[in-house]
Specification:
The chain is α/β, with parallel strands linked by helices and about 250 residues long. The chain has two domains: about 120 residues, Tetrapyrrole methylase, N-terminal domain (Cobalt-precorrin-4 Transmethylase, domain 1, 3-Layer(aba) Sandwich), CATH 3.40.1010.10; about 120 residues, 2-Layer Sandwich (Methyltransferase, Cobalt-precorrin-4 Transmethylase, Domain 2), CATH 3.30.950. It contains nine helices and ten strands. The longest helix is centred in the middle third of the chain and has 18 residues.
């Protein structure tokens, strides 16, 4: 009988020195217990996963020593031909945990292809509860939570990005659909400038940074207000920090 593929949520940047008690504020105890008993993980980043497992171990002792736990990497550089190899232990009855670098796996994450393959092999897929920066951003933005779309990264080319922002703003206006984006953290300021410069003055833009961390910052205001703030040198404190951007055209 095949093993179970657990989709394990990671923290959104929990400090490595955090205690088990503080970990429980973002990762439920049951999830910690399941994670602690697994000895095979398919991870976006092995180093990040080891750090996460150390946090788990502080609260729920790992079944095996960390050095004896197998961690196979699955990231943007992994060829799809390698997926059957990663899944093979489950076909022989071994449970596994799929874990992203941060947040929930298989959402804005290369793990989705592995999950799809698991379904084709009748492997049980069990998603576990944990933090998602995208949902936290929608919840806290004040924008439309009934209809929203995640667009990932926009083009880095200025002209292509401008056209894409305007097209998505138009869609937002027509469908009253909140649009979500992420950006490489060191380009946060440039991205907010692009949003505020290309959107209509009354379009609402939310900037949600370091969600679920002590440094969390969430602010929603119009494109005109963001543009004025940036011109005055009052950009958010979000450089090199994970940030979700949202817009809703009025």
């Amino acid at each position: 009988m095949p093993g179970i593929l657990y989709l394990i949520p990671n923290t959104l940047g929990q400090d490595a020195s955090a205690s088990g008690q503080s970990l429980a504020t973002v990762i439920p105890t049951e999830v910690q217990t399941i994670t602690a008993r697994l000895d095979y993980f398919i991870a976006e980043n092995a180093k990040t996963t080891r750090a996460f497992l150390k946090l788990i171990d502080a609260a729920q002792t790992l079944t095996k020593p960390l050095q004896k736990i197998e961690i196979a990497e699955l990231n943007v550089n992994t060829d799809n031909n390698a997926l059957p190899i990663l899944l093979a232990p489950l076909l022989f009855g071994r449970d596994a945990g799929l874990i992203s670098e941060t947040g929930v796996p298989a959402v804005a994450d290369p793990g989705a292809n592995l999950v799809r393959l698991a379904h084709t092999h009748a492997i049980q897929v069990r998603p576990l509860v944990g933090p998602s920066s995208l949902l936290l951003a929608v919840m806290s933005s004040g924008l439309n939570g009934q209809n929203f779309a995640f667009n990932g990264y926009l083009p880095t080319d200025a002209e292509k990005r401008s056209k894409r922002i305007k097209a998505l703003e138009q869609r937002s206006r027509q469908e009253q659909q909140t649009q979500l984006f992420i950006e490489t953290p060191y380009r946060n300021t440039a991205f907010l400038e692009a949003l505020s410069n290309n959107c209509q003055p009354g379009t609402l833009i939310c900037v949600a940074t370091d969600l679920a961390l002590s440094s969390e910052s969430i602010k929603t205001q119009t494109a005109a207000e963001w543009k004025a703030a940036l011109a005055a040198g009052k950009a958010p404190n979000f450089q090199k920090k994970p940030t979700v951007f949202l817009l809703l055209a009025q």
